[in-house]
Design a protein that fits this description.
eleven-stranded antiparallel beta sheet, two-stranded antiparallel ribbon, about 0% helix
């Protein structure tokens, strides 16, 4: 069994006009699996993968606001997961693939007003297998996800440097296991922040999950679920010398 491989990565960027760039990339991956064995004591072949991505980057407002649109196609073979009959061992699931689109916008809309937003659609499924049904969705992969975070910092007056932020994060339902026996519910979380920045120091208070929703952050592929954090408040103070 070979535990070495040649894994090339190559990319190209073309700029037809100054504010727009077109790009494409191809890569291969290789993950030795010598630390996992089947219930029969057999070692597994390495997990191999390859990925393609094409996209376009552009400026919506010159030197202020930019965006990126990407299409991707990823495939992995001989992917390992926990054996549903005995979680102490693993099984190889054949081939898995993920195709989708991602779009994001980030930058400064107006002086002091910043925004970061993103959306992703992912179709991730089992494409070849001797045990699992072809077409089953992959563990913990949401078909749709969205995030928006925006901040505004006062620019003038005695309160200059005082900032406020708010964000919303949406994650679609996700399968708990490769058998797709049940799904984790989707959720929408809202965060907020207050900050003050002046000369060489900065203080901030961040509020996470301000509506204290109950949600599941992730699953381990068997029966264990990891809940998301309840409402929490974090404060930071930093000084530059």
């Amino acid at each position: 069994m070979s535990n070495s491989a040649f894994t090339p990565r190559v990319g190209i960027v073309y700029q037809p006009i100054e504010p727009v760039s077109l790009y494409a990339s191809f890569s291969q991956s290789f993950f030795p699996s010598q630390f996992s064995v089947s219930a029969d004591g057999e070692a597994f072949e390495p997990t191999e993968g390859e990925g393609f991505e094409i996209g376009i980057k552009g400026e919506i407002i010159k030197d202020k606001l930019s965006s990126n649109l990407a299409l991707f196609d990823l495939t992995q073979t001989n992917v390992l997961t926990d054996d549903p009959d005995d979680p102490l061992f693993s099984i190889a699931t054949g081939e898995q693939s993920s195709q989708g689109v991602e779009v994001d916008i980030q930058g400064e809309i107006l002086p002091g007003w910043d925004i970061v937003a993103g959306y992703a659609f992912v179709d991730a499924e089992v494409t070849e297998d001797n045990v699992l049904p072809v077409g089953n969705s992959l563990i913990n992969v949401a078909e749709n996800s969205f995030n928006l975070w925006t901040t505004y910092r006062l620019q003038k007056g005695s309160l200059a440097g005082l900032g406020f932020g708010a964000g919303i994060f949406f994650v679609d339902e996700r399968p708990v296991d490769l058998e797709n026996s049940f799904f984790i519910d989707g959720y929408t979380r809202v965060d907020a922040a207050i900050s003050y920045e002046r000369e060489n120091y900065r203080a901030a208070v961040n509020f996470r999950n301000i509506f204290n929703i109950d949600y599941i952050d992730a699953a381990d592929g068997t029966t264990e679920l990891f809940p998301g954090s309840p409402f929490e408040v974090n404060g930071t103070v930093s000084v530059k010398f």
